[in-house]
Fold this protein.
Amino acid sequence: MIRGLLFDLDGVIVDTAKYHFIAWQRMAFALGIHFGHEENEQLKGISRVESLERILAWGKVSLTPEEKQHWMDQKNTWYLECISQMGPEEILPGVANFLGEARAQGLQIALGSASKNAVPILERIGLLSAFDAIVDGTVVTASKPNPEVFLEGARRLGLSPDACCVFEDAEAGVEAALAGGMRCIGIGHPDVLGRAHRVIQSFNEIPDPTSALLAL
Ligand code: BG6
Ligand code: MG
């Protein structure tokens, strides 16, 4: 019986992948490294520091710890510029309704995101109060596919992992949910998220949370 829902943020609640892409590409260009949509896809769900390490490895570029910190800060400044105009209109289709229904049906709701920008983003789109617990990149250190972020979310909801369902758009996030012993609904393409228990294109496909969970 599922009693708690754990939501990834980027790509599930809001489409911020396009903004991460703009900011990482700008950095990669400055460092003479190729960075396209294929590379961006591989960074979904991956922490900021791990993302930087992967980009540097792809470009065979080595930096000192100070230079790495500089570029992470610079990337985040560009990212924050991109999201500064964001508002509720950027909430992905069906999400606000689904969150409202889930709460009305008595389900517990937590965020499980690698992002250190999660709280300001939720504030900006007006969804902070929709969550009973927030676990983000300021709380956990291990990057998905490590299940830490979701295990901590379940713990904060006072639920065991098998009473939780994770919503994820990234392959690494689906792996994290499964590694944590949770059910998982993928948001996106079955080619990427095929290991999830179910894959949907948008929350509009599952307007009623309880019946969607019963079918898992
Ligand atoms: C994840 C994104 O949610 O958060 C990644 O999918 C991102 O692309 C990661 O790198 C960390 O985000 P931030 O906002 O802390 O740089
Ligand atoms: Mg995501």
Remarks:
- The mean pLDDT is 96.
- The first strand starts at residue 4 and ends at 7.
- The first helix runs from residue 17 to 30.
- The chain has ten helices and six strands.
